[in-house]
Amino acid sequence: MGFDFKGRRVLVAGGSRGIGRAIALNFAAAGADVALCARGAEALESARQDIARHGGRVHAAVCDLAQAADIEAWVPAAAEALGGIDVLVNNASGFGMADDEDGWASGLAVDVMAMVRCSRAALPWLVQAAAGLPGGASIVHVSSISAQRPSVRAAPYAAVKAAMNSYTGSQAARWCREGVRVNAIAPGSVEFPGGVWEQRKTDNPALYERTRASIPAGRMGTPDEIAEVALFLASAHARWITGQVLTVDGGQLLGV
Fold first, then answer.
1. Residue-number span of the structural domain to which 244 is assigned
2. Using CB atoms within 10 A of its CB, is residue 44 exposed (0-12), middle (13-18) or buried (19+)?
C-alpha cells in the first residue's frame, strides 16, 4: 500500500519535532506540500529545511498554539502559501501532567482548544477541497492511549486526551456529509530525541524500564510508526473511515 499525496496541501500543527516532525516529513516524502508551525524557531527551521529537501512547497511559522490569535493568523497564511488545505493534523500537546492549575491550563489550552481552533479555521478550505479529492478532505488528531484509562501520574493529560477523542466523533458526525473525515490516533509510549521518554530514561530509569517492559512488542514506538498511520487515515485507502480513534501502541494497552 503506497501513499501518493502529490499536489495535496497538508497543515501540521506542532510539527517541529518528534511525532509532528515525522508526520510532516512523511507527507512531504509522499509528495505533499506542507505547512507546519511550532513555538521554537530553531527546531522549526531545522524541520523546514528537512521537509524542503523533498521538493514541495513548505510554509513554516512560529506560532504559540495556546493563543487563539496566533492560530487565526497561521492557518490562513498557510492556506494562502499552499493554495488551500486538504489535510489538517493536530499534533500539539501542552503535556499538562501535574494535577494543578498549570497542568490543567496547559492541557486545555493546547491539546483541546488548539485542536478546536485549528479545525475551525481550516474547515472552510477543507470543505472546499473535499469534493475534488478521492476519499475527501481529512482531519487527524494525535491523542494518546492515556485517554483510555485512569491516570494518577498525569490526570489532566489523560482527561484532555479523552476530550480530544470525544470531539473527534462529534466533528466526524458534523462534517462527514460535507466530505471531511475526522479521525484520531492514540499512540502508546513513543521515544525520540528530546521527548518525554528519552528524558525519563535519564531522570526516572525505573519508570522507563517498567513502561518498556509492559509493552508486548518489547520496545517503545517510533515517530515514523505514528506518521505512517496518519498518512493512512488521510489517504483514500481510509475513505470509509471516520470518527475513529486508532490505537497504535505495540499492544501496550493489552496489559499482558
1. 9-250
2. buried
The distance in angstroms from the start CA to the end CA of the chain is 30
Q: Which amino acid is at 17?
A: R
What is the distance between the alpha carbons of residues 33 and 115, in angstroms, rounded to a whole number?
21
> What CATH number does residue 16 fall under?
3.40.50.720
Residue 109 falls within a domain, yes or no?
yes
Contact 255, 222 (CB under 8 A): no
State how far the Cα of 256 lies from the Cα of 49, in Å rounded to an integer: 42
Q: What are the grid coordinates assigned to 31, written together? A: 509528495
- Indicate whether 1 belongs to any domain: no
Q: Region 88-109: what's the mean pLDDT?
A: 96
Task: Give mean pLDDT, residues 61-81.
Answer: 98
167 is catalytic: no
Q: Among the options 27, 125, 157, 175, which is catalytic?
A: 157
Encode pLDDT of 184-242 as tens digits: 999 999 999 988 999 999 999 999 999 999 999 999 999 999 999 999 999 999 999 99
Contact 132, 8 (CB under 8 A): no
255 domain residue, yes or no? no
The domain total for the chain is: 1
Question: Is residue 256 domain-resident?
Answer: no
